[in-house]
Every structure is written in structure tokens, then in C-alpha cells.
Amino acid sequence: MIAIVDYGMGNLRSVQKAFEAVGHQAIVTRESSKIADASHVVLPGVGAFGDCMNNLIRYELDTPIRQSIACGKPFLGICLGLQLLFTKSEEFGDHQGLGILPGIVKRFTSLSTTPGLKVPHMGWNTISIQQSSPLLCDIPPASHVYFVHSYYVVPDDSAVTCTTTEYGNSFVSSVYKDNIFASQFHPEKSQKIGLQLFRNFGDWQ
Amino acid sequence: MLAKRIIPCLDVKDGRVVKGVSFVDLRDAGDPVEVAKGYDLAGADELCFLDITASHENRDTILDVVACTADQVFMPLTVGGGIRNLDDIRGLLEAGADKVSINTSAVQNPEFVKAASRRFGSQCIVVAIDAKSARVAGQSQGSDKWDVFTHGGRRETGLDVVEWAKKMTEYGAGEILLTSMDQDGQKDGYDLGLTAAVSQAVSIPVIASGGAGSLHHLYEALAKGKADAVLAASIFHYKEYSIAEAKSYLTQHGIPVRLLEEYSVASS
To answer: What CATH number is given to the structural domain containing A66?
Structure first.
């Protein structure tokens, strides 16, 4: 069973329904015991980084997430669920993240030298695959996926970079390390490409 | 490269699509869920539902429509029409909308946009602006001033469109949906001056709306109007053009779009 972690940040129904659409059962939960029992864990999230981290701590979900990752369970972070894995974010002042992957989260303006770059980065953009991952099985190179975000991750260790995407400059659009895969884009909004990624995640042992 | 988006817009009244839609094999052309599925297969980049339900008691029908659509179609969905408070937004987002579009309520109370973006994030707050040229009667040249209208274009606000768009950006809007009331329904092209003026004045994406009658019009709005996305209703609903034809045309003219071929590769 896949557990989708519910910490009050955004609608998780699309994520659950997308897993169901590809034949994987998923539950939406904020109970640590259910996260502990799950075979796979998904951390979605939209909104502000600080609010998300505060909610994770308030619902005492940070420890179950760390434990799931530490014990080798397949883990999928989506959007803010990617950013929260890192050390800290510059969004509205500095906020500490889970610190599972070393690195920081920055706002687009600090990356870009392109005048007139629209922020948020919103819409369909292509991924460039930097390393293979079971999550990208049957996903063609340069596929379009759906993004909506104003911040992006800068990992200390570039070896975790799975895909990059061009927006003003090149930024890390997904990371892959051991049992962790996390994407800045939204698979649950990326039509068939996104559904394939969910299928791959559910099949990942 | 970020693709320019094509966004079909459906008018939904009492839970039913009211403008004609002529997808082949559609069991029920009035069912928003069926229409949404049709556009999903056709390769639309996003969908927009405009709720034009008049009676108060039927307003919740849009929530069911959104929930049923979001359960079956995995693409971004914007819902607009009659959004007055934070509870309206929460209800739509919980039902499965990704973005909400706010028009009249933003003009009546700009602080509402600020509160909404703070609560739910800028990424889901679209401010819709209905614009009319402030052209003097008898003057044939297009002016470079436009006024903001509300209540479906019936009420003048005295606000300047470009200034209003800038203010809404500062207040936390994540996107502007810009409709030309002069061009809407005319099918002779988007208001390119208006679109370019707003698109260049704000740092957030702008969706051009009103006036699409041909594929070249879509091209013009994106290339000359510098829009990030184009919204269109009738040219797709009445099957004058398919989404695939539109994307193929735009590609041939150098506009980056997401093509249907690549999107079909991962089909199961």
C-alpha cells in the first residue's frame, strides 16, 4: 500500500486518483502508524515552504518520513515534497527543511539573467535526463511535464540530479538517490507521462 | 523550453456545458467530465471551467463537476465564476481545482487577492481582467489605454488595465487571464496591443482571451502579444480546428508547444 502523507497542504485527491488510475492502491493519511506500515511513501505539497515544514512538525510527521526513508522504503516527493528534503529554503526568510539531502532552495530571480522571466515558472516544460532511474522507465527523453513553482533546489551533491530543465538557466527538476525520487514537476497533472511515473513508482521495490 | 499553452474554456451552467461541443464519440456533449476527457485525449494543456450558474442554490453543482473531472483527468484545471470568499476557494481546491480565477471580487476588494494568495499560494490564484479599449469614438486607431470592466463586462470600474494588472501582481496573483471585451466573440483576432501591454508590464504569466477565430490568431497572441498561453472556446468546441492542428500550426511558425505525438508515447 502506498501512503500519501497528508499534512494539510493542498489537495491530495489528484495524487491518490492518479495512482488508482494506474492500478496502485493509495491511501491519504496523517497517521504515523499507517506511514510505517506502508510499502511506499509519497510526500506531496503546495504552498509556502515554512508553512509546510511547520505542519509536518505539528502533525509529528517528520520522524515517520525520516524513518521510512532510512529503512529503504521507496519514497516519492512532489513539488514542495522535493524541496522539503533539502537543508533550507530562502522562501520568506530562511527556513530549515528535513535536511535529508544537503542543499538549498532558491527563488528563480536569483538564478536568471534573463530579463522578463515570468515567475512562477508555470506550464509544460521538458526534462533532460541526467541519470537513469526506475521512475523514468518508458518515459521518453525530453518529455514535457507540468510545473508550477517559484523556487528550485540546488543540491550540494550534483550526483543526486536526475533531470534538469531549462528556465532562464538550467535547474534541477528531479533528484534520485537510493530509495528517494523527488520531482519539482507535478506527475499528477502531467497527463500520460505523469501517470507512467506513478506506475513506475508503484512498481518500484 | 517552456511551452506556450493552449487552454480550452468551457462555460458551465447548473453543472452542464452550455456551449456546443462536437467531439466525435462523445456520449454526452453537455457533460463537463466527458468534454474534459475529450480535451485530455486531444492534448489540451490545461482546462478552464467558467461557472455561469445564476441561481445561488445551484452553485454547489460546480463542486461535483470539478471533483468528477479531477478524478478522471490528470491535467491542470482552473475554475472561475462567482468566487467571493476564501471558503469558495477552499471548496474548489479541495474538490480538485488547481487554480481559481477571480474577477469581480478582486475589483470589489483587492485585499481578497492578497489574503487568498497568502492562504493558498500565488500559484493557484488567477486574476481575470475584462478589458475594453478606452478609445475615443470615431478614432480608428487602437488606443494604448484600456479600462477594467466587471460583472461580465457590464460595469465600468474606471481602473486602468495595465495598472490594475501590476497591482494584482503585487498583491500575489500568480497569473493574469486577460479578456478583450472588444474582441470577445468577434473571431477576428485577439487584441494584440492590450495583450502585449499587460504581458510586458507584469512578471507573472498572462493568458490571452477573446477573439480567436483562426490558428493564425493564436500565433499572433503568443508571438506579437507575448502571451504565455491562449484561451479559446468556440474554435475548439465547434471543431473548426483541433488542438493538434493548432499545435502543429504553432510549431511550424516557431512557437514552442507540447506536441501530441510525444505525449502519446507513454500511453498504456
So the answer is: 3.40.50.880
Active site (annotated) includes residue B188: no
Verify whether the Cβ–Cβ distance A118 to B96 is below 8 Å.
no
CA of B257: which chain A residue's CA is closest? A124
Domain that holds residue A142: 2-203
Which amino acid does the sequence have at A205? Q
Residue contact B265–A188, C-beta within 8 A: no
Mean pLDDT value across residues A73-83: 96
Distance from CA of B77 to the nearest CA of A (A): 9
* Chain B residues in contact with A192 (beta carbon < 8 A): 263-264, 266-268
Question: In Å, what is the CA distance from B213 to each residue of A169, B9, B49, B177?
Answer: 35, 14, 20, 18
| Axis-axis angle for helices A191-203, A13-21 (nearest 10) | 80
Give chain A positions within 8 Å (CB) of B72.
17, 21
Q: Quick check: helix, strand or coil at residue B25? A: coil
Q: What is the ipTM of this complex?
A: 0.90
Please give the pLDDT value at position B55.
72
Q: Is the pLDDT of residue A175 over 80?
A: yes
Chain A residues within 8 A of B123 when measuring between CB atoms: 46, 120, 122, 148-150
Helix boundaries (H) for B98-191: 104-108, 110-120, 161-170
* Nearest partner of B194 among B209, B204, B215, B172, judged by Cα: B209
Between A124 and B14, the higher pLDDT residue: A124
Dist. CA B197–CA A161, nearest whole Å: 39
Chain-chain contact of A189 with B70 (C-beta, under 8 angstroms): no
Helix (H) or strand (E) holding A43: strand A40-43
User: Read out DSSP for B48-83?
Assistant: EEEE---SGGGTTHHHHHHHHHHHH--S-EEEESS-
pLDDT beneath 50, residues of chain B = 20, 22-24, 263, 265-268
Cα atoms found within 13 Å of the Cα of residue B32, Cβ hemisphere only? 29
How much is the pLDDT for A113?
64
State residue B189 phi and psi, 5-degree precision: 110, 155
Chain A closest CA to B1's CA: distance in Å? 6
* A125 vs B1, B123, B205: nearest CB: B1
- Residue B206 near residue B231, CB atoms below 8 Å: no
B3, B96, B264: residue with CB nearest A124: B3
Q: What was the pLDDT predicted at B236?
A: 85
State the total domains in chain A: 1
Q: Among B220, B228, B245, B211, which Cα is nearest to B43's?
A: B245
C-alpha cell at B243: 488542438
| Alpha carbon distance B94, B43 (integer Å) | 25
> Do B204 and A120 lie within an 8 Å CB cutoff?
yes
Residue whose C-alpha is closest to residue B44's, from B52, B55, B36: B36
